[in-house]
Request: fold
Amino acid sequence: MFVAVLTAVAGCSDDSCGPGGAPDTGLVASGDAVTLTYGHLAAGLNNDCPASDAPPGVVSLTIHGTQSDGTGLVTLCVARPDLLAMQAQALDLDVAGAEVRIVDITGTTNTCSFAIDRSQPVTGRATSSGMCGNGSDTAGFALVLDGSLSITRTCGMTVDSLPIALHGRVAVTSN
Reply:
C-alpha cells in the first residue's frame, strides 16, 4: 500500500498514462495542393508560454516535432497542460492568452517551402489522452489536433497562401 501511495504522489507512470497506441508520425497539414506529415513529437516543461491564471506548479508545455516527409518542423506551446489533460483546448497563433499556440509550422516538398501564414486566422481544437504529470510523465501521451490555418507556399519566385487542415493523433514523448 505504501508503494502505491508513493507512486501516486510522485506522479509516476501507471497504466492510464502514455500514448495508448498513437503512432509516432501522423500529424498532417494538408490542403488541395500539399500534404505535410509530422511526427517524433517531444514535450518539455519549458515555461515558454506561461498562463497568467495557472495554479502554482503548472508550467507551460512546449512540443516540438519534425516533418517525416521533408525538412520542416512543428512547434506548439500549451499554456495550461493541466487543462489539456482534462478537456479540449482552442488552437490559435502564438499570441498572449491562447490555449494551445501554434508557434511554428514549416515544411518542404516538391522544391517548395512552406511556413505558417500569420496574417490568417487559426481555428480548431487540441485534446490529449494519457497525459499525466501535466505532460512531464516519462510515459508520454497522445496529442490530437483538429484545426485549420493557412500556410505560405514559396516555389521559386512564386509565393501564395494556401488554406490547410491540421489534424491527426500522434504520440508525444517527454524530454
About this structure: The first helix runs from residue 2 to 10. Strands lie at 25-30, 35-44, 61-67, 73-78, 89-93, 100-109, 112-116, 123-129, 141-155, 158-174. The helical segments are 2-10, 81-84.
